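Lab notebook, bench 4. The sequencing result for the construct came back, and we need a structural model before the next group meeting so we can plan mutations. Quick request posted to the team channel:

Model the 3D structure of this chain.
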Amino acid sequence: MSEGGKIAGLSFQPATPAMVEIPSSTKSLSAPAREHDRQHGMELETDRPGSDYRTINLPIALAKLCQDACFADGQCRAWTYVRPGVQTSGARCWLKFRVPEARRDSCCVAGVAR
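Done. Here's the predicted structure in token form:
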């Protein structure tokens, strides 16, 4: 993808190789990277199943797009980003109307907005 675009009313910039891949294990992340994710509400290796009201097929594999879509939607309380190849060939975002219980799963990155 060479040009930016929009999703859920948000603009995004073209993907760079560093932005596209999300590590499948927190072991591959440095301590500062894990701390950054924790501070910014990203729960790596976590799924929050259920309470879905909207699904978004993401144009690039970037969990931040899912997080941003949730924060931009006043109804969204939590979100789950599903890595490419788990449910479809691409990345998918699930917005939730309540905060479901978190469970460890390498398929996903999740977070709580409100």
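The two ends are 32 Å apart (CA to CA).
Will bring this to the meeting.
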